[in-house]
Amino acid sequence: MTQEPTDLQESGPIDYLIVEFPSEAMTGEAFPLLVDLVDRGIVRVLDLLVLRKEDDGTVTGLELDELADGTTGLEIFAGAVSGLLGHEDLAEAAEAVEPGRTAAVLVYENVWAAPFATALRRGGAQLVAGGRIPVQAVLAALEADESTD
């Protein structure tokens, strides 16, 4: 299901996520939503890897087809490996994961932003900073603002 951009100059911003969850509590509920984002052309999955960190710190990679049960759509991402992630990246991702947990490492292109990003690059612009504000931080800021009113 991965589609490589034909020209990186015309690609959208590329982001990554490491999402950790209890190994025994994987519901697969989010995967059909990811499939929907891809189907609608909002994102392009470049890499999707799953790893498990055992209680003793041992890390093992899991094949997507091992996790796919036919109801999540996850199997369509089997083989989603672009080559962007190296061994150091995966080791760093594993460091972020708590023992006894499983994590999905997702690298994706924001296809929705490609025309805007391409136009900026054609105009000589370049990204000099970026970031993400966690939802928890937004909620805390709003709650703090409400308490001062």
TrEMBL record:
InterPro entries: DUF6325. It holds the Pfam family DUF6325. It comes from the Bacteria. This is DUF1269 domain-containing protein.
